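Internal QA ticket QA-208
Title: Verify multi-chain structure generation after dependency bump
Assignee: T.L.

Test input:
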Amino acid sequence: PVQRTLSIIKPDAVGKNVIGDIIRRFEENGLSVIGTRMTHLSAAEAGRFYAVHEGRPFYNDLCAFMSSGPILAMVLEGQNAVVLNRQLMGATNPKEAEPGTIRADHADSIDANAVHGSDSEENAAIEIAFFFSDLDLQSRG
Ligand code: CMP
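Actual output:
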């Protein structure tokens, strides 16, 4: 099915100037960018975005890292977009990421891991709504 998912290019990858390389991988694999927003979250905003992880041992470091610089949030649309995006990203821990994935090529650590992607269609809807209004999205359907 055609799905939408939220992708975030994290502060480490924005800082390395690899936005274009990451978007190229999405487009070459059949995903279309239907909305983009560059922003710099406060730690409190990062905490709200990652509220599902509140209480986990890595939560504070995660919020500090995600508010350390600008990010690019975008909505990807395409067949099986949720799983396809996660395949293109590779494993959360770059040491475990398959060669050729975004994280294998651009991530430095489990926190500075270049990209975020929604883990389910249900969470994708919640995460998209965090950054975007429907008016911001241009479906290519
Ligand atoms: P992300 O997909 O953005 O979702 C939560 C983030 O927490 C994850 O990527 C990692 O960058 C970070 N993180 C740090 N430690 C862990 C961990 N042990 N398990 C999962 N995520 C972690």
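Spot checks passed. Helices lie at 11-15, 19-28, 43-49, 59-66, 81-89, 102-106, 121-131.
Status: verified.
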